[in-house]
Design a protein that fits this description.
Elements (H helix, E strand, L loop, with lengths): L9 E4 L10 E7 L3 E8 L7 E2 L1 E4 L2 E4 L1 E5 L3 E3 L12 H17 L2
Antiparallel strand pairs: 1-2, 1-8, 2-3, 3-4, 3-7, 5-6
Organism: Hippocampus comes
GO cellular component, one term: Scc2-Scc4 cohesin loading complex
GO molecular function, one term: cohesin loader activity
Amino acid sequence: MNESVDVTDVVAICCPKYKDRPQIARVVQKTKSGYSVHWMCGSYSGPWAVAKKRDGRKKVPWLDNIKESDIIYKKISLTSGHKLTHKVAQTLRALYAAKDGTKH
């Protein structure tokens, strides 16, 4: 996990407030404290797309700032159908299960 994170990389993040689903985001830029990311929405078996949130009446990209230590998996490559590969999905399930087990 020592590889660096580049802008436009897709990464998995461990963020307790969203722990019921895989947390995937695309890196927008490096910041002093970590990274600015653009959340993506999807599932282990379905396609992933850029997440939007409401800002008044319009929908805007859902941006967030994360610390490098929040990243649990780097350099995720999505398939041509914008899905996680089976191997990555299995790895993420195991990583999240392990993280969840340490919180009790």
